[in-house]
Design brief:
Elements (H helix, E strand, L loop, with lengths): L3 H77 L10 H19 L1
């Protein structure tokens, strides 16, 4: 057996060792916590960027969908409800054409 003084010193030594181990474990856990927090913040930034991109893409898709629907409506209206207006006639071309015809007629009459 040991004397009370020796037992007391052994207990104090054991206690100091356990305190040192606890302090090391606590520091290790703090380091792991900081690393985890850093990783989590990076993932939050990535998620925010992805969500912003998704919102932008959804907006662009909605705009394109509206343009397509508008074009389809114009196409359907042209195919089903509007009369055929025929070719567009330019009045200056018509005048030139009638002038050419009158010249040709006067040449043939001569």
């Amino acid at each position: 057996m040991c004397s009370a003084h020796e037992c007391n010193q052994q207990l104090q030594c054991t206690l100091a060792t356990e305190r040192q181990q606890s302090l090391c474990q606590s520091r290790e856990l703090e380091t792991r916590l900081l690393d985890s927090q850093s990783c989590l913040m990076e993932k939050v930034r990535e998620l925010t960027a992805a969500r912003d991109a998704q919102t932008s893409l959804k907006s662009e898709i909605a705009s394109l969908r509206a343009l397509i629907e508008s074009a389809e409506m114009r196409s359907a209206a042209g195919a089903h409800g509007r009369p055929d207006l025929g070719p567009i006639k330019d009045p200056t071309i018509e005048r030139a054409s009638s002038t050419d015809q009158s010249i040709n007629q006067s040449i043939h009459l001569s």
